[in-house]
Amino acid sequence: MSSQVAARKAERDEPVIRLVDVNKWYGEFQALKNINLTVNRGERVVVCGPSGSGKSTMIRCINRLEEHQRGSIVVDGIELTDNLKNIEAIRSEVGMVFQSFNLFPHLSVVDNLTLAPMWVRKMPKKDAEEIAMEYLKRVKIPEQAFKYPGQLSGGQQQRVAIARALCMQPKIMLFDEPTSALDPEMIKEVLDVMVELAESGMTMIVVTHEMGFAKTVADTMVFMDEGEIVEIAPPSVFFENPSSDRTKLFLSQILTH
Amino acid sequence: MTETTIPTSATAPAGQTGVSGMALERIRENVSEPPPTEKIGALRWLRRNLFNSPINSALTVIFLALLAYWGVAFFEWGILNAVWYTKDSNVCREATGACWAVIAEKHRPMLFGLYPYDEHWRLVIALVVYLGTVCVTLAPPFWKKYILVPMWIVSLAVVGTLLWGGVFGLKYVDATDWGGLPLTMVLFTGTLLFGFPIAILLALGRRSRLPAVKAISVTLIESMRGVPLITILFVAVNVFPLFLPEGMDINKMLRVVIGMAIFFACYQAEVIRGGLQAIPRGQYEAAEALGLGYWRMTYKIILPQALRICLPGIVNHIIAAFKNTSFVLIIGLFDILTATTSVMQDPLWRRFFVEAYLFVALVYFVFCFALSKYSHQVERWLNEGRRF
Amino acid sequence: MAVADLPRKSNTSVLNSLAFRGVVYQILLAAAVLFAGWYLYYNANTNLERQGIATGFSFLNEAAGFGIGESPVPYDSADSYGRALVVGILNTLHVAIVGIVLATILGVVMGIARVSSNWLISKLASAYVEACRNVPVVLHVIFWASIIRNLPSPRQAFSPFEGVFITNRGLTYPIPVGNPVYPWMGLALLIGIVGAIVLAKWAGRRRELTGRYFPTFWPGLGLVLGLPLIVWLAGGAPLEWSVPALRGFNYRGGASMTPEFVALLVGITVYTGAYIAEIVRAGIQSVPHGQVEAARAIGLRPGLVMRFVILPQALRVIVPPTTSQYLSLTKNSSLGVLIGYPDLVNVGNTTLNQTGQAVEAIAIMMVVYLSISLTISLFMNVYNRLVAIKER
User: Fold this and answer.
1) Which of A153, A215, B341, C15 is deepest in the core (most CB within 10 A)?
2) How far apart are CA C336 and CA C346, in angstroms?
């Protein structure tokens, strides 16, 4: 493990996401409290915690689906503010996969994938379709290219959603509980795709409850509770010897099965 | 608040923190801060909701200006310069503002039509009883057969006695003299009473597996939905008497109510059909497996669920039925709108038709708006999964 | 003991079979309906004979004997009832088509305003929708008819623009005088439209092949408007208007819309527009917010999100109820009978009163409206099948 680690350490010393003192309120309720997090290039971060702890809110702030009121978020050197140009630039570098897939039901799979490359990156249709087929192969469902989302299973839809995010060739991938809406027998196929993605060197932030996946893939575990980051540690330390009592409590609840 | 050290990988020395350069965070008591005050409150609300983009800002300014201009003009006309009460129409003619006095002067014939003047108190009581019963009916806690059915029977009996009279020392008033708001209510109630059972039968008929039943239902529903209500009223008034054997005569109002009831039933049947379709096949199968016959199954199991599912749609059509009572203007029954238009023929007060029509519009608006708010509330209850 | 050897219950009498019962019920029902039909027919015949009213449709060829206030085709009182009814149908279609176009525009604008992020605009649109929907359409029409009847006479006309007069005679406005250049301009317009379509297709192909975007909207608009303009200029830029001018008690020149037409149009348009606004709002809000987020997350700009994600899905939800509103508007045009607009029901009513042949007249009215409804329903079913979202 350490040689791989050392090799990756060299390329991974540059921070690609930096959250400094990020605070967010929904009306009177404070959803994020002084969040500080740095993610390096190629790093895989798994965020876990009880529901309502702000995990989804935090990663949604990174691509401006939510706005933070205080603090700063810098993605790939670009500061995230109300400036539309910055937001668009960041969004083309950050891909997101949602819990409820959010595929466009009126477009075929290949149309779902080529929509953004054609209209945002201004690619010719042929090139966009080539890239789409390549990613469909990578998520192992090239034969579904001309089907519609309504005709696919949950696991297939989520893999299409991952491929759709990848077609923009982002530098960072955000996953918001990607397997929580899936039937158990389909979780594995999606996790396999995510593991393969991680091994290819993609920078990933994954909000999930799948601890097995976390142990395999994560470089860093982040535990959030009630809007703040309670503990950040590598998996070896996080699972065996967490320093916070709240982490211990959470792990005991989640790892009994 | 205890420990406050917050880690960043830049500040933590590499050696003691492990692979990715992150330090372990110390535990911190979880305390919420209040949101930054300049971010909420009136100014922020204005910025977010009225001025959040150049186009929106421009539109806000334009419309605020227009509203101010018209608002002031309306205020001057409707309130400042208005004449609220006078028996002399010349006072109104000379004033520049609205003549609300026309309502004070004419509200009795507008609201009660040709009903004898001295007996109006009976109408008021009847209206109160009726509206009270309606309000009770709308509240879910009262949705039990043993409450609703007796209550409606009693209430209709009371209303009928008050309207017709002839007993208990009340003067008899023939149905042809009824008018105004009570007539609107009578037409409305009659439409619902006759129309609802027909609607249910038609909806069931359209879903029937028997081809003849289905054909008759579909034909009736699609024909009624394809023609204007006016033609149905014409049929009720002009054609229906031709179908009756010689000597038999049905009251015009009754014929109109039947016509409007069938019209209402055909639209309502489609809504109910939607509800019936939404019930999973498993319900039908379970009922059949238990040995329940068709009618028992429908009455006890299917209909209660179907009606709950499509309740918002049902209420919408009930609101439409209320508004449709105004169509009797065409055939000369004196509902509140007809009464108003004929009252406004009075040459002294004729020019103040705007005020009179606004008054009638307000009456309709109050009823329909209340019912539509109720419909939204029902939808909310259904979404919450409330059991009733 | 095998199942087949078990003693059978003998209750297989055909009388209890469900299928048999079904057939019996249907036969009884059909018999009842036929009997009722015959009974009504017999009564009707007897009554009509007794009252000396003719039956049959021969009255359609008799002279009508009444005038019609406005008509798109020539008509006078010597023409037949049949022709009068045709005029009625044309008038109905006239007000219905104009009404549908205006109500759609009004409804779409108001619907979009309802979901606007501007609180003021959103609330104003809500106020319009609630105020208009909760008042019966009959009251709308009567109200506007009363207002127009009480407008000043031509001598004291209200004139918002030069040459446009709003009076109790209706709306009078200038129109251009016919000129030989105009048909050529019409041709140029057609060419412009075709050209714009061709341009759009070419730009689309180019974008698919190379990814480069060629603007289609403004050049297309330029073609559609510019070509006729060029033709007009080449023809010497003729611009002669027939301006209405007051002569005595009325206007000479220009064109006008009768007060009845305007009143009916405004009444049913405002009413139906409110319903369409609600439908548009529901359609836009029916698109799950998650899809809008996903579209934004992959970098699509708001305009593209609207075009590719929101609008296609919203339209599927909007179109069916909107076509039923169009139907409703067409049926509401029958309110012309209340205010003197000579639509089908009005003409039919006069016919009915003069000939006494109520059954035939009403039957004609109902058949016409039914045909219109069925046609519109047919188109809507075809549309629904074409755009249905494919599912398992």
Assistant:
1) B341
2) 6
Fold of B178-383: MetI-like fold (1.10.3720)
Put simply, the answer to whether B226 touches C373 (Cβ < 8 Å) is: yes
Q: In this predicted complex, what is the ipTM?
A: 0.82
Phi-psi region of B165 (alpha: psi -120 to 50; beta: other; left: phi over 0): left
Question: Looking at beta carbons, which residues of chain C come within 8 Å of A168?
Answer: 298-299
* CB contact B30 to A (< 8 Å): yes
Going across the sheet that includes C170-173, the strands are C165-167, C170-173, C255-257
Q: What is the pLDDT along chain C (392 residues), one digit of tens a residue?
A: 555 555 555 555 666 677 788 888 888 888 998 888 888 888 888 888 888 777 788 888 888 788 888 888 888 878 888 888 999 999 999 999 999 999 999 999 999 999 888 888 899 999 999 999 999 999 999 999 998 888 887 777 777 777 778 888 888 888 877 777 788 888 888 888 888 888 888 888 888 888 777 877 788 888 888 888 888 888 777 777 777 777 777 777 777 888 899 999 999 999 999 999 999 999 988 899 999 999 999 988 888 888 899 988 888 888 888 988 999 999 999 999 999 899 999 999 998 888 888 888 899 999 999 999 888 888 888 888 887 776 65
pLDDT, one tens digit per residue, over A90-149 is 988 899 999 999 999 888 999 999 998 888 888 888 999 999 999 999 999 999 999 999
Decide if B23 contacts A226 (C-beta within 8 A).
no
Cα Rg of chain C (Å, integer)? 29
Q: Kindly state whether A116 is in contact with chain C, defined as any CB-CB distance less than 8 angstroms.
A: yes
* Edge-to-edge strand list for the sheet holding A70-75: A29-40, A15-26, A70-75, A78-79
Comparing alpha-carbon positions, the chain C residue that sits nearest to B211 is: C26
Residue labelled with tokens 């069938």: B262
Chain C: closest CA distance from residue B170 (Å) = 34
On whether the CB atoms of residues B203 and B310 are closer than 8 A, the answer is no
H-state helical runs in chain B: 42-49, 54-75, 89-94, 101-112, 120-138, 145-164, 180-206, 211-226, 229-234, 252-277, 281-289, 294-297, 303-309, 311-324, 336-343, 353-384
Could you tell me which chain B residue has the CA closest to the CA of C129?
B369
Asked whether the beta carbons of residue A150 and residue C390 sit closer than 8 angstroms, the reply is: yes
Provide the number of CB pairs (under 8 Å) joining chain B to chain C. 150
C249 near B CB under 8 A: no
B4, B10, B12, B13 alpha-carbon torsion, rounded to 10°:
-160
Contact assignment for A65 to C296 by CB distance below 8 Å: yes
Break chain C into its structural domains and give their ranges. Answer: 25-53, 81-177+240-387
Put simply, whether C152 touches B (Cβ < 8 Å) is no
d(CA B167, CA B161): 7
CA distances from C157 to C21, C152, C168, C366 (A): 74, 6, 9, 40
Residue B173's SS3 state is coil
Spell out the residues 6+ positions from residue C273 whose beta carbon is closer than 8 angstroms to its own: C102, C103, C106, C107, C110, C132
* Among chain A residues, CA nearest to B10: A38
Which two structure tokens, joined as six digits, stand for C335? 């309110």
pLDDT tens for residues A4-52?
555 555 455 788 999 999 999 888 888 999 999 999 999 999 999 988 8
C112 touches chain B (CB under 8 A): no
What pTM does this model have? 0.81
Rounded-to-integer distance, Cα B22 and Cα B13, Å? 9
- Beta strand spans in C4-90 (E): none
CATH architecture of C81-177+240-387: Orthogonal Bundle (1.10)
Q: Report the pLDDT value the prediction gives residue A18, as an integer from 0 to 100.
A: 93
Separation in Å, CA C72 to CA B32, C76, C82: 74, 12, 15
